[in-house]
């Protein structure tokens, strides 16, 4: 699914949070957004899904302006996992994941066997099948994150938006999640803090001060000079002999003034 934005921006309280972003997400690609805290990554994700009111500029989904689509139509195409997502403590894990089927249900199409199959597959994909009957209040932060992702998968989107999806996850589940994302036959856009994880994306957009300052293949946009300028750290690129991928080792700048 193709997603495009032209001169997209958002201002609140007299402060510009996202400023003039023009971007095109290609069908089937995994696109990462990186940048320091406060650079506008999360706000840009919300603008791209129509969750923030009164933006400037325009977002198109497969050539159709997003503001001309109903929330149900958008939800049938885009699933979002926000960084601070929350769920009622009274629900079981299965109940929470079943909520992902809501855009597809109606009085004439109630929850049925096909929906149960999709929910089961989402639970299995995120390693939560054995926890389906657990209460939400009993889950750790990492387990809740996986349940939110399972709910998004149950939505059967064509575009999956993830805001810091590896937050709260241990190393095993971080790697499992990123491997899962890489196998999905959907377009993926995700904001990431870990630049080594971001190197696995097809393309990256680099945010700073609300602006998209670079966009392209990871090796081209995450140069040592750009990382030093934006993230205020020195970086040493290393080559992993196991698969010949590039990894970064970071060093604090001597002068932080």
Your description of this structure?
There is one protein chain. The chain has nine helices and twelve strands. With 257 residues, the chain is of the alpha/beta class.
Highlighted features:
257 residues; 6-stranded mixed sheet; 29% helix
Helices, strands, pairings?
Layout: E1 3-12, E2 15-25, E3 30-34, H1 41-48, E4 56-61, E5 64-65, H2 71-75, E6 78-81, H3 93-98, H4 113-125, H5 141-154, E7 159-163, H6 171-183, E8 187-191, H7 195-198, E9 203-208, E10 211-216, H8 218-221, H9 224-231, E11 233-239, E12 246-252
Parallel strand pairs: 3-8, 3-9, 6-7, 7-8
Antiparallel strand pairs: 1-2, 1-4, 4-5, 9-10, 11-12
Helix pairs in contact: 4-5
What's a concise summary of this model?
The protein has 257 residues and is an alpha/beta fold.
**Structural class by SSE content:** alpha/beta
- Unreliable segments (pLDDT under 50, ≥5 consecutive)? none
Largest sheet: 6 strands, mixed
With strands numbered from the N-terminus, the spatial order across the biggest sheet is: 6-7-8-3-9-10
């Amino acid at each position: 699914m193709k997603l495009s934005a032209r001169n997209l921006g958002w201002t609140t309280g007299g402060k510009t949070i996202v400023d003039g972003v023009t971007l095109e997400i290609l069908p089937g690609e995994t696109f990462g957004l990186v940048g320091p805290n406060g650079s506008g990554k999360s706000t840009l994700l919300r603008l791209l899904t129509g969750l923030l009111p009164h933006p400037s500029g325009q977002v198109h989904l497969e050539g159709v302006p997003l503001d001309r689509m109903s929330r149900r139509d958008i939800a049938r195409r885009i699933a979002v996992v926000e960084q601070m997502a929350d769920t009622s403590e009274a629900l079981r894990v299965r109940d929470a994941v079943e909520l992902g089927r809501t855009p597809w249900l109606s009085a004439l199409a109630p929850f049925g066997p096909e929906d149960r199959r999709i929910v089961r597959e989402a639970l299995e994909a995120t390693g939560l099948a054995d926890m389906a009957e657990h209460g939400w209040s009993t889950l750790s932060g990492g387990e809740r994150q996986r349940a939110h992702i399972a709910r998004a998968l149950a939505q059967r989107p064509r575009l999956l938006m993830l805001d810091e999806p590896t937050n709260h996850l241990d190393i095993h589940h971080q790697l499992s999640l990123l491997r899962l994302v890489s196998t999905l036959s959907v377009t993926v856009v995700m904001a990431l803090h870990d630049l080594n994880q971001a190197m696995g994306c097809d393309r990256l957009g680099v945010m700073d001060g609300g602006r998209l300052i670079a966009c392209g293949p990871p090796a081209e946009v995450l140069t040592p000079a750009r990382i030093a300028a934006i993230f205020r750290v020195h970086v040493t690129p290393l080559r992993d002999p196991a698969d010949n991928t590039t990894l970064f080792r970071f060093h604090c700048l001597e002068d932080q003034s």
